[in-house]
Design a protein that fits this description.
ATP binding, 7 helices, 2 domains, alpha/beta, Rossmann fold, single chain
Length: about 250
């Protein structure tokens, strides 16, 4: 999968693409549904591409602490997007300056260099300055280039609730990994470097990850179970010495 770090205009490409636009935090079941539908529009010579944004706009603009951390920080997000069939990712640095981009500039300028065959977005999609532009305007602007736009309805659970990153964040914080994994459609992983302090082995620099509340939890490393401790410092104490570790939170606690 090709990854492009973008500040405004996306790099030119002659490859025909079906483009999906969204935040994709968690790459959860709703996102997977969106990607699968988009993939169904791809002809044999077309690639599936995603435009996503980092950091979360609610953190970048409003400093909402609930969105400072990500369910899937960039590298984890890219890992899952590749797993679910994405060929190209355009990861836009979302800043206060970028938030001033109008809907017209986004479509006519920022996406102008792409060879678009189709654009796919989720239900109630908004974009542009103030998020005051909707799918109808997106269709009008893309119509100038004869690019079709498809709006995909939310994926909902058995209780008719849409699958949302907000619910996943809450489940992760509460240590309800079974619910989180059910909404994500994949296990929840955390990865980081390990340092030694006073004989303890600590996963550090986890500022980008949504962490469960302070407590002991069962996790899997290389399919083997072990117990870890989430600390008030935002670090995780583990029972083994290793330079870097990737752990999966176990749904059976």
């Amino acid at each position: 999968m090709d990854i492009f770090q973008v500040r405004d205009r996306l790099p030119d490409s002659i490859d025909p693409v079906v483009l999906v636009i969204g935040k994709f935090d968690g790459v959860h079941k709703g996102h997977q549904h969106l990607l699968a539908r988009a993939k169904s529009f791809c002809r044999p010579d077309e690639k599936l591409a995603v435009v996503c944004f980092t950091p979360h706009p609610l953190w970048a603009l409003k400093r909402n602490p609930a969105y400072q951390r990500s369910i899937t920080p960039d590298m984890e997000k890219f890992r899952w997007l590749a797993h679910f069939g994405v060929d190209k990712v355009y990861n836009v640095a979302f800043t206060e300056k970028y938030a001033e981009t109008s809907a017209e500039t986004f479509i006519r300028d920022h996406l102008d260099g792409l060879n678009l065959s189709h654009i796919v977005v989720g239900e109630s999609f908004n974009f542009g300055k103030g998020r005051d532009s909707d799918v109808d305007l997106l269709m009008d602007l893309c119509g100038e280039r004869s690019v079709p736009v498809t709006e995909i309805p939310f994926l909902r659970d058995g209780a008719n609730h849409k699958v949302s990153s907000t619910d996943i964040r809450t489940a992760l914080y509460e240590g309800d990994f079974e619910k989180a994994e059910n909404l994500l459609g994949h296990p929840y992983f955390i990865e980081g470097n390990v340092r030694v302090e006073n004989g303890c082995y600590l996963i550090t620099k986890l500022e980008d990850f949504v962490l469960p509340k302070v407590a002991r939890y069962q996790v899997l490393k290389d399919k083997k179970q072990m117990e870890i401790q989430v600390l008030a410092s935002g670090e995780i104490e583990i029972p083994l010495r290793i330079k870097r570790v990737r752990i999966q939170f176990d749904t059976i606690q």
